[in-house]
Amino acid sequence: MTITLSNGESRSPRVITRLGVPATVEWGWDTPGASGGWGMVITVNREADGRLRTLTTYREGYPFKPVEGSHSALANSGDTMELLRRSQTGGPDLKLSRTVTLLPAGFKMPTQESKPRG
After folding, report:
1. pLDDT tier for residue 32 given thresholds of 50, 70 and 90
2. Residue 115 clears pLDDT 60, i.e. is over it
């Protein structure tokens, strides 16, 4: 996933979660001098036809003025989706590009010991 704010800030977090389990990504809420923060909770479920439904709930704002919204998208595993969300609080706009990939049933997260060093 690539998240880009109109003020030039960018993040590329990799979010790995199980189907139906919400995953949270946020930044800027506790950063000194930041104009506000963005956060999102992403939940992916599989539809009866095999496609993946991604529900993203957004939170943004300045202290004492939070704004929430949500977006739902349906795609096949491996498809890339893009979304532009305009700021509701005067902060930077959010551009989100994400690819949701369904991993194999036996997928195991790599451990620190198995990661290459270098």
Report:
1. low
2. no
Q: Which two tokens stand for residue 112?
A: 């620190």
pLDDT at 46: 92
Rounded to the nearest 10°, the torsion over CA 80, 111, 39, 9 is -70
Other CB atoms within 10 Å distance of the CB of residue 87? 18
How far is Cα 59 from Cα 70, in angstroms, rounded to an integer?
9
| Contact partners, residue 82, CB within 8 Å, separation at least 6 | 95, 96, 97
Give the global pTM. 0.70
Alpha-carbon gap, residue 109 to 16, rounded angstroms: 9
Q: Measured between alpha carbons, how far is 65 from 24 in angstroms, rounded to an integer?
A: 20
- Identify the pLDDT of residue 62: 58
